[in-house]
From TrEMBL:
Region named Disordered: 1-43, 60-83
One record GO biological process: regulation of protein metabolic process
Family: Belongs to the cullin family.
PANTHER family per record: CULLIN (PTHR11932)
Pathway annotation: Protein modification; protein ubiquitination
Highest taxon of source: Eukaryota
Name by which UniProt lists this protein: Cullin-4A
Gene Ontology, cellular component aspect: Cul4A-RING E3 ubiquitin ligase complex
Ranges of Polar residues composition bias in the record: 66-83
GO molecular function: ubiquitin protein ligase binding
InterPro entries in the cross-refs: Cullin, Cullin-like_AB, Cullin_CS, Cullin_homology, Cullin_homology_sf, Cullin_N, Cullin_neddylation_domain, Cullin_repeat-like_dom_sf
Keyword line: Biological rhythms, DNA damage, DNA repair, Host-virus interaction, Isopeptide bond, Phosphoprotein, Ubl conjugation, Ubl conjugation pathway
Length: 808
């Protein structure tokens, strides 16, 4: 309902009366110097510490600031009962009010009494609000400088009075430290309370004068100058702290809270580095220098490393609990220097080989972690690691401590050693790239100390794993094993030696059908091709191709045999081999049965009809047969070589033959015949009996068919002579490699000279080393150069004998 004009006028008069009344109350409050605060002292103290200057001026405005000009300071909207909005304006006094007489002396007396009460831990008679207001009033009337000086003098007198208690020499160092700490804690509490009272002074006068310290800093400066700064007090304090820390390092329990408080005191007083840290680091250096020397003599390496790790942990814990963080780097560096850096070589010489040999994973991890903390630590560890690999590898490769007959175990030992080193690199040495590179260099170094032999043995090891009958591993395990072998293969220089022996063994596996898995064979071939290129595996791939073509050709030959009159009871299988792909086999003439000769002629005519212009050369050393034998105990099938077959077939015509008779009938070379008869009469399956008995076959021995032969199996495999590598085969394979190398060297020399036309001896040798993929001596290269000069491929310069010219 709208108000009438009369009602509006009444409300307006009431508002004017209320406003006048409030103005009188505010004026009265200012004149009587009454504080408008109604909060409790603690609440006021907490709030006052966080107030801004504008807030304090709004709350404490009992006495106006001098020089006020009556300009409006604050305006806030007011809403009247009629709904209209008005502004309430507060103005300063136009003239500065006069202070009572002796105001400064009386006010300071009240404040100094409060400060003394705080120093003596007595109750303060005046309220904190009143004291705060008094400080603000004095500051407002330009008494700040005098007030600050008076406060400083009172605080300084109090601190000086506490000095004498610390100069008594009869106090024990721990009791002395507690007294210092108690005095410091009391001083801090007192200065906090004093500052809360003089907060207005601190936030006006002090802030406006950069040359004057804040009240808190003034208190610190006084305490530093008259208590801790005293040379006797400071010396006893630092000595006590060092003794406490030394006791803790020796395993005793100490008051860490006391240490923390006093060290923080030194830090707050800004004398931590000068007074304490320097002496603390000197004591630490002396302690760990002596400890390192002593323990290196008394303890083995694993125990010593555990102790170092423990000491580093302890020092880090001290930093966490009471030492200043600025001490962290120097103190840890000192421990590392005295316990590790000074003894790097001694630790490695004394214990690294043992840790590696025993595969102490935890200790090696600790060693790597600790050595990584110091300068040149990992560098020295890496060098020692390389030395260990080379020395251990040489023992494996050269068989220094073992019988040379144990060469067959070399590759397995190398694989085990490599797996062990790889595990150490991964788990202990964090797969550090420098360590991995050093490992590769070390393996390459020691594995080629014994030239060519590791390559030969790796090829034979692969052969043993790829043969049928090797049931030691599944296909997945065999694949992983081949990968590991390839890692070792990468380190050898004589890869052509590996190729020669691998090709010879692969030929036997393919021809005798003893390959464990075609997939495994092709997987190995793929790995070699990826590692060495297509040229390296070209002949090996050709061998597989020959075997596949032979199978297809034999299908056609069997169909052909069905249409002709052939000897009955014999089934012929032939593998056609390209001579350039397969290892060379020495030709050998033997006396074959007429049936076999007839079958050979039939096959040869069929093959030459299909492929005219080619030449076939039969290799009896590679043949094998399956014979049906009749014994008194039952019929058996004998799986034997062609040479064994020729010997056994004689006993279909007679019961007893001498060595010379067997030789005459078969035509087998004498040494080959001895091994063949030895396998039939002296092995596990003795289908022949030798007279006299013995392991060796001599010229006068007689051989009799063993009719009483028994065996639990129906098909019996008698070890085939051609699967046993003789020393002559080994030597011939090695010689072929050397001859091939000579051809490669000659070709490389001619290729280089044809391109360069003229070249000095040293540059030619350097070019050859860059191109040749096998190890060769300078003397051997010089011989090949002389050979090419003799054959007119190149000549010496007439004016400079050290310069070679290409002859077109």
């Amino acid at each position: 309902m709208p108000l009438s004009n009369a009602n509006k006028r009444v409300l307006h008069d009431q508002e004017k009366a209320e406003e006048e009344s409030n103005r009188k109350k505010r004026r009265l409050s200012s004149e009587n110097n009454i504080s408008p605060l109604s909060k409790k002292p603690r609440e006021f103290l907490e709030e006052s510490l966080a107030m801004t200057e504008s807030q304090r001026k709004a709350n404490f405005s009992a006495i106006p600031s001098p020089g006020s000009n009556g300009i409006s300071r604050h305006a806030s909207p007011l809403t009247s009962k009629t709904g209209t909005t008005k502004k309430l304006v507060i103005k300063n006094f136009k003239e500065k009010p006069n202070l009572p007489e002796n105001y400064q002396q009386e006010t300071w007396g009240k404040l100094s009494e409060a400060v003394e009460a705080i120093h003596k831990s007595h109750a303060i008679k005046s309220s904190l609000e009143e004291l705060y207001q008094a400080v603000e009033n004095m500051c407002s009337y330009k008494m700040s400088a005098t007030l600050y000086d008076q406060l400083k003098q009172v605080c300084e007198n109090h601190v000086k009075s506490n000095l004498q208690q610390f100069l008594k020499e009869t106090i024990a160092y721990e009791q002395f430290l507690k007294k210092i700490d108690h005095c410091w804690q009391a001083h801090c509490r007192q200065m906090i309370m004093i500052r809360s009272i003089f907060l207005f002074l601190d936030r006006t006068y002090v802030l406006q004068n950069s040359s004057i310290m804040s009240i808190w800093d003034m208190g610190l400066d006084i305490f530093r100058a008259h208590i801790v700064g005293h040379h006797i007090v400071q010396t006893r304090t630092v000595d006590g702290l060092l003794q406490l820390i030394e006791r803790e390092r020796n395993g005793e329990a100490v008051d860490r809270q006391l240490l923390k408080s006093l060290l923080r005191m030194l830090s707050d007083l800004q004398i931590y580095q000068d007074a304490f840290e320097r002496r603390f680091l000197e004591a630490t250096d002396r302690l760990y220098a002596a400890e390192g020397q002593q323990l290196m003599q008394q303890r083995d390496v694993p125990e010593y490393l555990l102790h170092v790790e423990k000491r580093l942990s302890e020092e880090s814990e001290r930093l966490l609990h009471y030492l200043d963080q600025s001490t962290k780097k120097p103190v840890i560096t000192l421990v590392e220097k005295q316990l590790l850096e000074q003894h790097l070589s001694q630790i490695l010489q004394k214990g690294l080989d043992q840790l590696l040999h025993e595969n102490r994973i935890a200790d090696l991890t600790r060693l790597y972690t600790l050595f990584s903390r110091v300068r040149d630590g990992l560098k020295e560890l890496c060098a020692a690691f390389a030395t260990y690999i080379k020395n251990t590898g040489k023992v494996i490769v050269l068989n220094i401590d073992t019988d040379p007959e144990k060469d067959k175990d070399m590759v397995q030992l190398l694989l085990d050693f490599k797996a062990k080193i790889d595990n150490i690199l991964s788990v202990c040495f964090a797969s550090n790239e420098k360590f991995i590179n050093v490992m590769k260099e070390s393996f390459e170094h020691f594995i080629n100390v014994r030239q060519n032999k590791p390559a030969e043995l790796i090829a034979k090891y692969v052969d043993s794993k790829l043969r049928a009958g090797n049931k030691e591993a599944t296909e997945e395990e065999l694949e992983r094993l081949l990968d590991r072998i390839m890692v070792i293969f990468r380190f050898i220089h004589g890869k052509d030696v590996f190729e020669a022996f691998y090709k010879k063994d692969l030929a036997k596996r393919l021809l005798v059908g003893k390959s464990a898995s075609v997939d495994a064979e092709k997987s190995m071939l793929s790995k070699l091709k990826q590692e060495c290129g297509g040229g390296f595996t070209q002949k090996l791939e050709g061998m597989f191709k020959d075997m596949e073509l032979s199978k297809d050709f034999m299908l056609a030959f069997k169909q052909h045999m069905q249409n002709i009159d052939a000897p009955g009871g014999i089934e012929l299988t032939v593998n056609i081999l390209t001579m350039g792909y397969w290892p060379p086999y020495p030709p050998m003439e033997v006396h074959l049965p007429a049936e076999m000769v007839k079958l050979q002629d039939i096959f040869q005519k069929f093959y030459l009809y299909k492929h005219s212009g080619r030449k076939l050369q039969w290799q009896p050393t590679l043949g094998h047969c399956v014979l049906k034998a009749v014994f008194s105990g039952g019929n058996k099938e004998l799986q034997v070589s062609l040479f064994q077959t020729l010997c056994l077939l004689l006993f279909s015509e007679g019961e007893e033959f001498t060595f010379d008779e067997v030789k005459e009938h078969t035509g087998i070379e004498i040494n080959e015949l001895r091994r063949t008869l030895q396998s039939l009469a002296c092995g596990k399956a003795r289908v022949l009996q030798k007279l006299p008995k013995g392991k060796d076959v001599n010229d006068g021995d007689k051989f009799i068919f063993n009719d009483e032969f028994k065996h639990k199996l129906f098909r019996i495999k008698i070890n085939q002579i051609q699967m046993k590598e003789t020393q002559e085969e080994n030597t011939s394979t090695t010689e072929r490699v050397f001859h091939d190398r000579q051809y490669q060297v000659d070709a490389a020399i001619v290729r280089i000279m044809k391109t360069r036309k003229s070249l000095s001896h040293n540059l030619l040798i350097s070019e050859l080393y860059n191109q040749l993929k096998f190890p060769v001596k300078p003397g051997d290269l010089k011989k090949r150069i002389e050979s090419l000069i003799d054959r007119d491929y190149m000549e010496r310069d007439k004016d400079n004998p050290n310069q070679y010219l290409y002859v077109a």
